[in-house]
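Run: sequence + iron/sulfur cluster -> complex structure.
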Amino acid sequence: MPTLRSLEALQREGLVTPDPRLDEAAEAMAIAVTPEMLALIDRADPADPIARQFVPSVQETEVSADELADPIGDEARSPVKGIVHRYPDRVLLKPLHVCPVYCRFCFRREKVGPGGEALSADELAAALAYIRDRPEIWEVILTGGDPLMMSPRRLAELIVALDAIAHVAVIRVHSRVPIVDPGRVTAELVAALKPRRASVWLAVHCNHARELAPVTRAALARLADAGIPLMGQTVLLAGVNDDVATLEELMRALVSARVKPYYLHHPDLVRGTGHFRVSIARGQALMRALRGRLSGLAQPTYVLDVPGGHGKVPIGPAYLGDDPDALTVRDAFGGTHRYPL
Ligand code: SF4
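>> structure
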């Protein structure tokens, strides 16, 4: 079964019914649902958390005044095409804007898609030259789009080019491929992720424990067995994972698949995604509840990307009181205790 790429295909699967507002939603952002994700959808559940992530909704046509076309300010921090340089020691490198699925809440939803621009050979050379000319760049984060949509040959060429820049110690790859399109994690692709000198870390995007089906766990095992450290990033999404039992199950499933939970992203102010957003207070309450249920190994850091390109900050709950005369600390179960100043 091929990836579903149109409203008609989704209609044939019984996942949508005709509605002009869906046409509008599909025009604003491409559709892609891989066979692996389709197989996980419970058609009897109108609120299925897998379908909710990939099947367009009429709510996408509702845009509020606070929502932004470029919610994390990539453009403002892009000195050359394909590079985002927010912090002195690291850059994002975006070689392409194609993804295996199109997540309806995506923070780059106005950039990604099959028509999205990939860097030309000259543009990629200019982006690499930018990195090469700046010895302070210690880490390069490959993102997009999804960098693992490149062919293993092209990916290997890019990793080799980065590996040849002596000051680049770490190449971090952000991808949804191992989760949603695990068949792409071939021996060739794994080999492409193994440079001679620099370290490669792989952050996989996973929002629900059901996404970790056996075929996906096998793909993660191929990567982990090759010695590639794996991290998980999750977007906190209303109707997908905004309850403590779902998050707990997901974090346990990630750790058991040898993926260290890294970020829990507060959803960005993306146009047409209000139906996915939860309040920061709700996110903090969920993090507090997770602290009482999960070991440190399974705790992600709850982060907000400050709109305008100002980077990420942790926004988890505070555990210290703010009384200047008596330091108090709150435990994971809600108890409050004094601690010497
Ligand atoms: S895979 Fe990542 S970049 Fe692509 S649509 Fe989903 S969230 Fe956006």
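>> summary
The first strand starts at residue 83 and ends at 87. The CA atoms of residues 320 and 329 lie 5 Å apart.
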